[in-house]
Amino acid sequence: xxxxxxxxxxxxxxxxxxxxxxxxxxxxxxxxxxxxxxxxxxxxxxxxxxxxxxxxxxxxxxxxxxxxxxxxxxxxxxxxxxxx
Length: 84
Prior knowledge:
The chain has helices spanning 6-11, 13-23, 42-54, 58-72, and strands at residues 2-5, 27-30, 36-39. The protein is of the alpha+beta class and 84 residues long. The chain folds into two domains: 2-40, 3-Layer(aba) Sandwich (YefM-like fold), CATH 3.40.1620; 43-72. The radius of gyration is 20 Å and the shape is elongated. The relative contact order is 0.10. The model has no long low-confidence stretch (mean pLDDT 95).
């Protein structure tokens, strides 16, 4: 995560945007009034939104945690892909 001021961001916005996209990282821009703005790529935002949605219910979160634990323990099955 990178941090910059609003004045530095105004002067170098293109390079900051390029860095956010190239590094898949977030940028915090601090404003003069003490508030902070977060800049991230659309793909990173969509990924975070999907994660939030998948974890939005207790039942789904528990199911995902159980599946991840099984995968880490090697309890997986291989299947051939079916072409349609």
